[in-house]
Design brief:
TIM Barrel; 8-stranded parallel beta sheet; two-stranded antiparallel ribbon; disordered C terminus
């Protein structure tokens, strides 16, 4: 049966929870009670699920015994963990690609042990020193994947395909996160990358907010939606206010709730549903009490955007049965 607003799996992104505590102990070395405390806070905010963002804890660097403890902590708190997002571990980073690829494989193994369904990877690399100085890191440019470089492109295809095949053996989906100035940084490039990888369990995480928040000209939001959302198998959702003064070449963006930002998630989900999207959703928000804003974003999706049971009875949502719509590839 297709998901409805009542049971659609929506995870919280633990962006507001630091990797290192005030006592100097990292989440890698923390007692399971510290994990359980975060899980309970997420549960109390109104979420049934969490995305195990590796900026908080790195499942791929935990032993099997510690992974069992992590899962038990989540179970004790009554929270599910169906997804892991591995951030800034690009498999085409010139200096670190071998370590990043090995880490990505370990993350897949950890996801399988934890009972996850999907792992989100990207091609974005570590923040630069200049980015780390900013209130919002996206206001200055970071790493850029080389343009018109077939050799590097092919490395991305081959290495992500390797991860996709490993994921398939483990019964997992791989989702590729949109991010500026990478091969996942435009609608056309992201779709081409997925098509070149050409595996049924590898799709896109159409994190539109990553591209909308840039303080420079951006691709049409409507075109991004139309191009990328049909390939979605997981989805980080967040929104931004945006102002443009083309005459002065001024561009400003700042985080906003899903309902009030410049991305129309009503339009985006209409496109997604028509394409058969049945993937897990992750609610994100940067700054302030981001967990509460993310919880409000979840309420907005459930109350105003996602289909109700009666919509299916009326034949309104154009949703394919099952968890994943078969993707067309370039050869088709």
């Amino acid at each position: 049966m297709a998901y409805t607003a009542d049971n659609w799996p929506i995870t919280a992104a633990p962006l507001q929870f630091p990797h290192e505590g005030a006592d100097g102990i990292t989440m890698q070395d923390a007692e399971p009670t510290a994990w359980e405390g975060v899980f309970r806070e997420v549960r109390d905010a109104g979420f049934d699920n969490i995305d195990l963002f590796d900026g908080w804890v790195r499942p791929g660097d935990l032993s099997t015994d510690r992974l069992d403890q992590l899962k038990l902590a989540a179970d004790n708190a009554g929270i599910g963990a169906p997804a892991i997002s591995a951030i800034r571990r690009s498999v085409i980073d010139e200096q670190n690609w071998e370590d990043n690829l090995a880490y990505s494989h370990r993350t897949l193994e950890a996801a399988a042990q934890l009972g996850c369904e999907v792992v989100s990877f990207g091609l974005h690399q570590a923040l630069t020193p200049e980015q780390k100085k900013q209130l919002w890191f996206w206001t200055v440019e970071g790493h850029k994947d080389p343009e018109n470089d077939p050799e590097t492109w092919n490395k991305a295809v081959e290495r992500i395909r390797e991860l996709g095949n490993h994921a398939a053996d483990l019964g997992l989906l791989v989702s590729l996160e949109l991010y500026e100035d990478t091969y996942l940084g435009t609608g056309d490039s992201a779709v081409r990358l997925v098509q070149d990888i050409d595996l049924p369990n590898v799709g896109l995480n159409p994190d539109l907010g990553n591209l909308v928040r840039l303080h420079r000209p951006i691709e049409s939001i409507q075109e991004l939606i139309a191009k990328t959302v049909p390939y979605a198998n997981y989805w980080h959702v967040k929104n931004y206010l945006r102002d443009e003064n083309l005459a002065r070449n001024q561009f400003v963006a700042m985080p906003a709730p899903l309902e009030t930002g410049v991305i129309s998630y009503r339009e985006a989900f209409r496109t997604a549903l028509a394409s058969g999207f049945q993937g897990i959703i992750c609610a994100e928000h940067y700054g302030g009490d981001g967990l509460s804003v993310s919880a409000s974003n979840q309420d907005y999706l459930r109350k105003k955007i996602l289909p109700k049971t009666e919509d299916y009875a009326l034949g309104t949502p154009l949703v394919a049965q099952g968890r994943q719509k078969p993707r067309q590839t370039a050869s088709q």
